[in-house]
Amino acid sequence: MKFSARLTCVIAVLCAAASFAAELARTGGPYVPTPQTVVNAMLEIAGVGPADYVIDLGSGDGRIVLSSATRHKASGVGVDIDGELVDQANASAKRLGIEDRVRFLQQDVFATDISRATVLTLYLLPGMMESLRPKLLKELKPGTRIVSHDFDFGEWKPDRTVEVKTEEKYDITGSWTSNVHLWIVPASLGGAWSGSVSGEQGGPFKLEVKQRYQHFDGHVERDSQMVEFKGGQIDGTRVRFAATGPGGRTYTFTGTVNGVHMSGEADTGGRGGARWSATRVVQ
Fold this sequence. Notes:
- There is one protein chain.
- By secondary structure, the protein is of the alpha+beta class.
- It folds into 2 domains: 27-184, Vaccinia Virus protein VP39 (Rossmann fold, 3-Layer(aba) Sandwich), CATH 3.40.50.150; 191-280, Quinohemoprotein amine dehydrogenase alpha subunit, domain 2 (Lipocalin), CATH 2.40.128.120.
- Helices cover 28% and strands 38% of the residues.
- The protein has 6 helices and 15 strands.
- The strands form 2 sheets. Strands 8-9-10-11-12-13-14-15 form an 8-stranded antiparallel beta barrel. Strands 3-2-1-4-5-7-6 form a 7-stranded mixed beta sheet, with helices on one face.
- Helix 2 crosses helix 3 (63-72).
- It is elongated, with a radius of gyration of 24 Å.
């Protein structure tokens, strides 16, 4: 009987733990309001303005979207799985007279259409952040700003992080500060490209890119000569990389990606002003 009772207790504990883990995965964690000082810092680091559409995943009482509308004249939508919080946020929008520009939905964040966002904000636990990462990279337009309170996307490192003094968090976390992280969604650059440089002797070049979020490496091949490069940068749709060719001549490329095309300026060993363009090779 004692063994049976202990086994029953262990099973109950395991079931409770599994239920808690499932609920945590479903909701992204318990509701903890983002302090207003952090909200202000999040909107500031993202440069939110009247032309922006802010989507907040896990919006709670709606303070991020509400602040973006009242302080920065933006519009947007908040999404939360808690219906009571959604109702509270919609009531706040109506009370503030901004219900024509913002709204709040009871919805699973994984089912949310985020394609319209120019700014996306989050305060979710690390597991959900990493689970959301593929969705954000796939569905958000290049150049969209993502801002998170405290937690990041794991191997996708922020473009910028600022520390904010947050005294009201001490009783909850034991910390006097919060971190605010910013990412700029990078254009998709990985793969093969075929291009040319205007005014340069020699034939077209082939570009092979290996992308890792906002960074990329690769090689350039031209006239049967190949040079590798490292440390390429993608800032939304803007790209920059440099390759050193035969004789130590350095080629610096800056430009803009537009789907399967990119173009810009090439500084060929100090002789700036040449134009370059490339088209993605369909494989």
